[in-house]
Structure formats: C-alpha cells, structure tokens
User: Fold these one by one.
Assistant:
Number 1:
Amino acid sequence: MRNAKNLPSSSSRKFSTPRRLLVSAAMIAPLALAACGGAQPGGEANGEFSAWALTGTQQNAFKDSFAQWNERNQEQPIAADFFANDAYKEKVRTAVGAGNAPTLIFNWSGGTLADYVANGNVVDLTGKVDALEERAIEAIEKTGEVDGVQYAVPNNSTQPVVLYTNKKLFEQVGVEAPATWQETLDVVKAFKAEGIIPFAVAGQSQWPYLMWIAYLTDRIGGPEVFQAIQNNEPNAWSHPAVTEALTKIQELVEAGGFGDSYGSVVADANADAALVHTDKAAMLLQGSWLYAGFKADAPQWYEEENLGFAPFPTIDGGKGDPSNIVGNPANFWSVSADASEEAQQAAFEYLNDYTLNEESVKSFIGLGLVPSVDGAEEAIAASEDAGFLGYAYQSVQSAPNFQLSWDQALAPDQAQVLLTNLSQIFQGSITPEQFVEAMNATIK
Amino acid sequence: MLMKSHTAPVRSRRRLGTNIGPSTWLLAPALIFFAIFALVPLLGVAVLSFMHWDGLGTPSFAGLSNWQQTFTNPVTLNAMWLTFAMTVLCYLTQAPISILVGVFMAGEQKYRAVYSVLYFLPLLFSAAAVGIAFKALLDPNFGLSKAFNIALLSQDWLGSTDLVFYVLIFVISWCFVPFHSLLYQAAVKQIPTSMNEAAMLDGAGRVRTFFSVTLPQIKYTVITSSTLMIVGSLTYFDLVFVMTNGGPGNATRILPLDMYLTGFRSYQMGAASAIAVILVVVGLAVSLLLNRFSGTDQMESQQEGA
C-alpha cells in the first residue's frame, strides 16, 4: 500500500493538489463531526516559520528554546502551538497530508516518518544540520534515518523504559528488586501475600502493555526478532521468542502480578504511578519521563527516598543482551517539504544553533529529563536529580540496542492491531497462538 | 389544528400555499447549506470508499476491496453486533426511565422543580467532560470505592470485558435520560386536565390513568424520542471514545468508533469511508422505517374526546 504511492515527487504532486484537497475536505468533514473538531490548527501559513509540539513536562523546555530563537531573530519568529499527545498525532498527519504542516514537524520517527518520506512530505536533512548531529548521541540520531538517509533529528530527552520500585514496600516485605525472571515470580508471590499489587500497569491506556512484550521479546530472542517483524518478513511474529514472551505475560497475569483491576487504570493522569507512590503497588515498568511525575505528584514520598529504579530482569537462556533497553530514543524534528524556502532555511539554522544547545540541555535536566546529547555527564552530575538521570543516561549510552516503542516503529495500521491483540493477551481472552496468527496477518 | 375532514379545507389550504405563501426561493439558503455541508461530503465519502488512501498521498482506486474488507473483517463485524446490542440495550434502559421521570416532572408534587433541575443537570455537561469524570470515578484504586470506602465499588469497571459494556450503557443513559424526560414532560403537560379529571371521576387509579390516558396521549412523543434514541445510539461515539477507546481489546469498539479508529489511527481512509457509508444508510433507513410504521405521517388527532 505504501509503495503504490511512492510517486515521482514534485510534478505529480503539484497537479494532484486541488483534487487531493477536495477529497481530503470531503473526507474530513463527516469524520471530523465525529471527532468533535477542536480548534483550528495554528501555523498554517506556509510562509511563516512554525512548529508544533506536545504539552506536558517537556513543554517548557521547548518554550524556552523557542523564546531564545525569537529574541535573536525578531524578523522571523517561531509560531509555536502545543497539543496533547493523542490529539496531536491525528492532527499533524492530517495537516501534513493536506500540505499545511508546520515547518518543524514533531515526530517519533518509525512508521509514520517512513510514510512521510514515501510521500515526499519531509526534507532530506543530510549535511544541513551537521552541528546538531555532532551534539546528539549517535545511536539515537540513527533512529531518525529512513533507509539510511537522515530525515529527522532528535529534539528533546531520551526516554528509556525503567523499572521503578517502591523501596519502602520492598523493605517492608523483605525482598530485593528482581534481577531474573524467577526472582520476579518469587517477588510477586511475596507481595501478593501481603496484599500489595506487585506491578502497576495502566491497562486502560493499552500502550503501557507494549513495554512488557518489547522487553521480554528482547531479553529472550534479542533485537533481531522485532527487526524481522519491522522489516515485514513473512511470519516474523511466529518466532518462538514472541510466543514465549506472551506466555510469560499470561503467566505473570495469572500469578496476580498486576493485581485484578489493572484494566481500568488510566495512564493519562499517572494513575499507575499513583499506585506506587501511595504504597499500593511495589513496581512499575514505565518511561523515564515519569520520574519528574513522581517528584511532582508525591514530593514527600520522594523526599523520603522511597523511589528506586532497576533494569528489566534477565531471562535464563535468553539471547538478548541484558543491557539492551526499549522506549523512545527521543522525539524528533523533521522539516516540512511544503514550507517556504525561507522557513526551511530558518528551521535549519534553528536546528543547528538552538536545538539541544547548552541552554536547552540545561533546561531538560532541570525538568528531570535525560537530554539526548553526548557529554552531558557534568551537567547531570551537578543537578539535583543526579541519581536517576545519571543512571538513565548511563544505561542509554551503554546499551548495545535501544528499541523504539513497537507502536511507533510499525506502520499505524499494524500498530493498532498490535495494541488490540496485546490488550486481549493481558485479559487472557486470546492465546499466544491466536495473537501470533492475528499479527502475522498484518505483515505486508 | 389537525385535519379530520379531507375535502374542502385541504383545497383551500393548497390555494393559499401557492398564491400567498412564502416563495419557494426562501428554501434556497437552507438547501445550499445542506448541499455543501451534507451532500458534498457524503458523496466524497462514498467515492473514497472505493479508494485506498492513507491520508498523506494521492488516493488510488481500489475497486471493491474496501467493501470486501469491511464485510469480512471480524473486528468490523463484531462492531456491527456491538452497535446493535448497544442500540437495543440503550433503548430498553432509557425509554422506560425517561417516560417515568417525564411524567413525574410534569406533576404537581412538592419539590418537583428541585428534582427536575437535578435530573436536568447531566444534559448541560459535554460528553468529553462526562467521560473523563466517570473514568476518574470508576478508577478501582482512587475512585468511588476509595471515596465511600466500599469494596464492592472497586471493580475492574473499564477493564473487564463482562462489565465494561454495561458501564457504558449506564453512563450513556445517565447523559441522555434528562433530555428525553424533558420531551415527555412537555408532552404530558399538554394533556388536557379534563381528561385526567374524567378518568378520576370514572374511578381510575394512578396506574390505570397512566396506561389508559397518559401513554396513549403522548404516543407521538414516544415515537419522536424513540427515533432520536435509536438513531442516536447507532451513531454514538464521543463518550465511548473518551472512556474506553474501544477497549479492552475490541469489547466496546462500536461501529462509529471502528470508523474513527480505522480512519484516524490506522489511516485506512477507504475502509473507514465504507463504514461511514454503512452508518449513513442504516441510520437513514431506520429513521424512515420508524416514521413509516409508527404512523406519524397519517396525522390523526390525539385529543378525541377532550
């Protein structure tokens, strides 16, 4: 499906624009009614330099960085708009498809970036942003490549998934953070006996489930297993590592590893983290972005040094390197191909001189986030969050493989089927074999 | 106001209509609006249902494959079944409650106005806000169960396949019963008091009066409200989207939501359009059928004997 539209870029696109607009307008009208509309997207004029990013913890770091640019480039300020995560993902794709994308497109690389590239929506950045490429951690920057060409560059923090622990509860029950799968099962039993939920997981939001399958598959079969899936190799999901990972998940569910009402826990309001800092749950597998959430939501609990962190347990006989991590290597900026020449030039300049520059790195560290640049050791050591940030920074730099979240790495339609089926695995309503069969059907 | 004799008055009315009545041109603005904002997009969707489009490139012709996919995809078939079940259950829950509350609000009891205001409140809230609020209330760890310290309320409300569907029916009914009650209240208030008095004099009790006088008198309101409820449930979207996003698994992925997720999460605009066309056709057919079989087009008096 994607290849069919890999048309010669400029000329054919120019002729098809009116028709495309008509079709998109017609298409969007009735569906938008269902979607409840929302505000008009802001930076629509293609001439001006615009950027869209996300609300939340990182928003202020972006705001500061934009303000810094605006101060020194008053003739061409950045028109910035911020959106909530899910709403943003839908909005930006519609805008890109309609030729109204902001100059700087905030993205996750992976499947959606590949779609943008296939349709000629984003600019090849090779040789245009060398200064930024020099600063960024190389492994992370590589995630912004599509077929070996740089189409996106990291713009914020790196977000490995870590195992948060509630040290108070571990002390109370008298166990250690699990280092192996067997220890995990033992620890689950110990917590369950005390009426404590061993692992919090926000099942209602579905995507937190992905961290489990991604880590387990990597530990059991190594990164090659998902690589084959991502390359759409026929029957790639049939790899025994996937089945074993799913079996282990169901084993953990049955052992009461997630309590009995995890399906109603919502991630949006950090209800999963709340379970940990209200001493109801002992552990939580979540992204490093949640660290700042713990600190802000439960300052006293945090002050008492109850928050611990550990790597994902190893699996006996597993092929994956135990220092591999999964998560979001970073978020990325891409430059819209529909933007005017001046806006694109301004964007390159912004990327080179302002994105993840010294001030920006400092503001990320100040927010409790791990910047995705080399040589931040000193700044991190000097910060008040040196313990966690140092741990996360070090684990990113020493990881042989940093797996991008599966839902971002796959094409959007495959990711949807994955989320639904994984949710059914956690509910126990399908077997690993049914999962494998359903997922193999999405390979194209 | 309603015609019982079919001869003279009809003719005179027709003459009035052609000579003195407002010009047909006054229809133009409404028609143009309808054409631009309803018909054109509808046609666009119909065309798009025969194409492959991921929202980014140029749509390519797909023949019947989207339609084939729609009618063979177990997810969509399950969505159709869920939509049907939701429509029936929503109707069976909402209709009796609305009628009873409506009749109550039309009465003369003490504090009736206070109750009416309370019943009416949910109608003023936006569906998204209601969804988010209920999501928080139903949180098994920090929601209602903690507030009242009742363990029974600590269920896996949104995460259990067995519960979630009924939870949704409850919340949807909570939102829409006030509106329908309002319709019934107005209808009941229009029943001439002489009829109730006559029934009372004949010795009819409360229950008998309700079934023999009130219900027959509000027949057309029942039809209006039923049409709104059924067509509304068919296209119901926002609360479900906010509260469950179709989950857990596919347990609450009703057809309108299936359309949205297929279109804006999987970016299969062609398949999403096919579902949209099905929704339009079924919605139109159902409301036409309801009108036809309920006899609203026959215009008979409701007030014989009043």
Number 2:
Amino acid sequence: MHPPAPAWLAELNAAATHWGQVERLPPVAFGPALEVERYRLANGLEVALIEDHSAPVVAYHTWFRVGSRHERPGKTGIAHLFEHLMFRETETLPEGEFDRRLEEIGAENNASTWLDWTSYTINVPAESLPLVVGLESERMSRLVLSPEIVASEKEVVANERRYRVEDDVEGTANEVLWSTAFTCHGYGIPTIGWMADIEGFTAEDCRAFYRTYYAPNDAIVVAAGDVTPRALVELVSRAYGGLPPAELPIEDVHPEPPQTDVRTRELRRPTPTEKISVGWHGPAMGDFDHPAVSLLAEVLTGGRASRLHARLVRELEIATDVRVFVGPFRDPSLIEVSVAARPGHTAEELVDALDRELERVRAEPVLPDELERGRARLELALLSGLETAEGKASTVGFYETVLRRPAGAFERLEALAALGPSDLLRVARRYLRADARTVVIVRPEGTPGDATTGDGEAAA
Amino acid sequence: MSAPTHVVVESSAALPLVTFAISSFSGAATDPPGHEGLARLATKLMRRTGGGLDALELDARIDRLGAALSAEVSPSTTTLSGTVLSRSLDALVDLVIDVVARPGLAEAELDRIRRETIAELVEARDDDRGLVRRWFRRKVFEGHPYGRPTAGTPATLARLDRASARAHLERTFASSNLAFAFAGDLSEARAQEIANRIATALRLGPRLADDVTEPTARPGRRLILVDKPERTQTQILIGGLGTHPHDPDHVALHVANTIFGGTFSARLTREVRSKRGWSYGAYSGLPIDRHRQAFTMWTFPKASDAAACIRLELELLEAWRRDGITPEELAQAKSYLVRSHAFSVDTAGKRASHQLDEIVYDLPAGYHSRYLDEVRAVTLAACNEAVHARIPERDLVVTVVATASELQSELQAAIPGLEHTEIIPFDSD
C-alpha cells in the first residue's frame, strides 16, 4: 500500500509530462536516524533520497542494472567500455564538455562497473544539483558513439586492463580463478573483458548496447544530502520526463551447476614469491546464508587477531598477507581466500595450513568471543562508510540495485546480531568444502618445474 | 603536568562514532643514517605491545570494542589514529594509554616485526606503481632524509634493537611533542579530558627540533630505469623538486598545477588519455610536507607507447613553463577549487584533520581556513611566475618501470638533454 502523496506531488504531476508523472513509494527507515524516501516515474525510473542537511553537498548517483553478467562470449567487457564512453560526447555537449562543466561547479565525478551493475557517481555542491540532473539525463539518452570515440576509448580500456590484469599478478590470478570456477554463468566473464574482445568492439556494438540497457526503467537515481524530496523529484521529473521506457530483454541467465571437483590452475609469473587464490561457490547476496558467511570470513581473516592471520602470518610465518572476499552479488558467486607466501615458503605449505584451519571451522563451533569481535568489526565498517553523503548514496544504491532493498545494510546488521556459532558451523560445512573448490597457484618464473616461458599457464 | 598544548575538536552527532589522532612532530626523517626503518619498526612495536599485552590479545580487545587503531609513520610525523563506536570510547582510551605510555616492547615481537618487514619488502616488488614511486623518491631526494626508505632495508633492520626502539619512542611520544585531534560523537570538554588523561600518562619531554635541511636539486636530466621482466605496460614518474607550504607562490602554483594535471579535464589527461588513449591515468601532483616536496607527472602507457608518452609529457611541461596558462583556464580552475572545497570539509573528521595538519606540518597560520580567499585572489601573472620559478624543466628525474632490454634506447632517445641513465633491477633491495 502506497503512502499518501504530499500536496506538492499533485501540483508537480499536474504540470509533468506523461512519462514524468511521479508516484510515491513507501519510505524505508535507514538506521535509527535516517529514512529513504522513494519515488518512481511513469517511465520506470526509480528515485531514492536520504535527506541530510549536515553539509551543503549532494551525492547524485545513477545505478544501471547492467553489468558484465549480461555479456556473451566474443563481446566481453562492453558494459565497462560503455561506462568509459558515457564521459565522452553527447548531442549537445562536445568532447570534454561533460567533465569540464562538472569541474566548473566543483563536482566529484566517477563511475564503476561490476558483475551486476554499472554506477555513475557525481557529488556536487548543493546549489549546482540542477545542472547535474540535467547532465545525467542528457547522457542517458543522447550519447554520441562515433567510431573515432569508440576507437580511442578502447585504447584507454586496453591500458586499464594491462594495469589491472596483464602486469598485475593478483589481477591475473583473480581472473583465472573466476573464469575457472564458473563454467556457464556470466560471473566467469571478467568485467574488464578479454583483450581480444576489447580490441574488437565497433561503434555499432556500443550503440546496440546503449539502446538495449540505458533506459530509465533499467536505472535508479539515488541522492543523499542537502536537498528536499520536493526539490529533487521536481528536477528528476523535468529532466527525465521526456524519456520513454525501453523494452528490456529477458536475461539469458545460465545458473552455475554445483561444483563437485577440485580445479587447479598453475601460473608462472615474474613475481618474488608463491601465491594462492582459492575459491568456493558461495551464497548469493540475498541468501539467508550470506551474513553468516560474511561473519565467518571476519573470524577467519578480519584483522590481525583473526584465525588465518594469527596462524599463517604470525605463528607459522609462512605468509605475508591473508585476505578473504565474499562475493556481494545477486546470484551465487565465490568465497575467495588469497594468500601470499613469504620468501622460501611454498604454495603447498599455504594450502596445507589453510586446510587445517578450515577443517577446524568445519569441525567445531567458533568461540562466542570471535563472533562478538566479527560483529563489532562489521558494524564499525558499516557506520564508517556512512559519514559522507557519498557513502550514504553508495550504500543505498548498492543494496537497492542488488537486492531491491535500499536499507539492506541495516537489515544485514540485524541478521548478523541473530547469528550464533551453529550458523557459522553450518555455512562452513556447506560451502568451504575440500572436495569442491578452485585453486590457483602462482609461482615465480625460474622455480623448479618451470617449463614455460612468460605466459605459461598449465592446468593440473 | 600541564594540559596538552595542541588539542583539536570537531564535534558531530551525525553518527555514533568517534575518530581521533595523536600525532607526533617527528617521523622517519629522524632515523639515524644506517638505521633506516627505526621509527616505523618502533611505532609498530608500540602499537602491538600496549600494556605489555600479547599482540593478539590487544588486537582482539580492540576488535571487540568495535574499534580500529592504526599507527602510521611518514617522513615528518608519526600518528596513532583510530575510530571507535562511541559507546566504547572510554574503554578504547584505556587501551590507547596502554599503547603510548606503557608499551611492553617485547623482544620477540620486535624480531617478528623485523621478519615481517623484510618479507613485505620482497612482496612489494610485485607492485609496479609502488616500485616507480619508491625509486623516484630515492633519486629526487638522493642524500636527503626524504629519499631514505621509511621501512628500512634488511641491512638497516638488522641493526635495530629494543633499546633504540625504546629511546625513539620516548622522544617521539613525549607529551610536548604531540598534537591531538578528535572528531565525531563527543563534546569539546570530553575530548579535552581524554587528551589530558593521555598526556598525563606520558613522560614529559620537549618538542623535538626539526633539523631536516631543505632538499636541493641535483642538476641535469636523469633516467632511472627499474628493470622488470615481461612488462607489457610501463609506470612512469617524471619530476623534480616542487613546492614548500611557506613559499609565497605556493597557492598560485597549486592553482597552476590544477590546470596542468590536477583534474580529469586538465592538459595532461586531455592530451595523454582523451586524445591519444595512451594511459588510463595521467596526472601531475604537488604534495606538501614540512619541507619542500616533489613535483610529479604520473602516466602508465603500454610499453610501445612509453617513449612517445615521455616525449609528449616533456613537451607539455616545456610549453607550460614557456607559455603559461590562459585566463579561461585560470577561471575554470579557480571555480573548480573554490566550489569543490565543500568536499574537503563535509565531515567533522576532515575538518579536524585539516587543523591537525596545520599544527604538525608547521603550515602557515590559517593554511586551510584562508584557502578559499587565497585561491580567489590568485592572478594569471602569479600562476605563470610560480610555474616558471618552481617547476623544474632541466633538473628532472624520469623514473620508468619497464623491461630494459626492450625499451632502454627508445626511452633514452625520448629525453632531450639526458645526462645520466641508471638501470636498477626491480629486485635489487
């Protein structure tokens, strides 16, 4: 049931276009002190706002529900390339003008692409919000995609790939891990795309992608900061009210079958020490198990007192660093542990020590004190991320895009508070299996067994 | 015991969080030659052995409070900083006092940190961006404390012991050598009371004199080639000496640098990235410290574009010095700097940090509070004179991480007036 519309909304709708008619959706509490106001335009564009007048700034973020999961072989990396192209030229803004205008008003301007989404973030002094809303609606519908622009941006993206993957050992290992662990789901596609695909894109590929996914009904606008609901909604309705919705394609999604084997890949790279990345298929972000896995990850690697850090880095002194990543994605993804060996120690030692600790969490409950510490660390991390308008908008945008729950961050805190040792025992046994995982081993070139040169990659 | 001289407070009840920093006026630049790494090792040791506790127990207690506590050492400062859920503030302060006033400095922990640091130095060879930064700094500030390795080397770390760590900490964390900053969910009176509690627990001691001399430029253009196998991409830092916060043209130079390489539409990004697609990022920087720091241009083109990119960067640098900036560019940069300033002061933590920086880096009085007025007052002539006077054109260090056998001659040819080339294996230290 929808809340009563404020009087100003009726006035606004009386003057708005057909697609710019605005409906108010139920607001949602965002923690103890704030609230997310929600609206939807007739063209499907969703609007969320956290009104916060503590500083004279507004974060204005646009999230599109398209990411690398929507790509197909041969055309990988187009969602990310497109993110770059959104900064180039529109029908009314020549090359460079988009950034120049934003800088002139003192705005911070960035974007990111991941598996499920693409996000455009502009943080602006409050008095200049109208210009930003206008610029964002302009590039949602009137982008220029000439062959020259696409060609030069492909060069930039290729250089970004060299930076993040080709010449980065960790980036390479990560890419091999995910592309090995996923056999059919789009999560096996690296968001930045394979190099050959990046080089092969044409302007027509980009235009087709734009027509398909960049539409108001595939997006959510999230604002946080020094603006009232009325002011924001009036701006959005006026700026986007001329845009019709698009017919969005039904996603051709291929659920990943359960992994029932151990897949091992070994790489040789010019790196000083051996490294491992181990991935297990884990729960989706919205799964009941996801908070428990996140809390287990804190127990294992959250801070220097965590189990894996204490054992591998401090006690055995076989590792320089241990990290865990729990995929925050819409579909089931990976739980990933990465460890770098100290000089003189081997990947096999790391795997052995890791296995012993994982056997422990599968065999016996974690201690209440470990749960308490993990929960406190996660609470601190959430609150620390909400200091700025930018942090609030990012948090709301992420949870709304992935889970369609704008206050999902606080709901997650409640879920964490309810977890007990048996929950962590359950998820450790369910997901961290020794007989179903992917292991990537990186060894320095020139070490025993190195029969490859340069790009050697052997499956074992 | 008198109350601490420097206590900064920015209260905000927006979130149930408190952040704080205890900053010392001295850092790694005070490491005696041959004992590089002392400040960092001693500070880590202090952080891990507060109250004589075992490091794991101390970390567990901090975690349990919903707190984070970190120790950082820069050339000029040493800072213990943290964030805590406000309900746990008192308990964290007790632990902080244990750390700064009653560290156990266990010998075994010192040895462990030494071994960790040596392993980290090896691991750091994976990071090309880190490599180019490290070697650039060492060569620009060769012979000066700013050029010495903050983390030390295996040889210097071997010379450090518990006695030298203790002596260093007693000097560094003496009460008169500290400034305190608090932000967030606490009152000014509460912050002052906490600062008093911490200062009372510390030994009395003077503010240490900063006897670091001003760095001087080594003449000529030098190529420092950090040789690493199989690089498809290079990391390039070009620069020399930069700005000093007390320079009369400091703000004008900052504005001019914004135009040259400080934003996404600046000259460097436009020419290198937007027009040619050569590098994902292309920026210039003018960091500040208590003494003159460096001016840098940073790009990372693919190997086959590296020579052309260096040539272009040098041409852009020369044109900037020769022709200056335009009135339109100046108006755009001033508008950007003045209006984006809102994001430098939009949280209590950032505002407190500004005030703390002014104190510990000995910045001119009102460095941050007068910033907007000073930017507005900058003229075209002042910018151009500052660029001409401060930005080096001849005395430049060009540092490149690349595969030397593939690129050395090309890179040398791309640098007119090159006087010296040094090839450094990426795993040489």
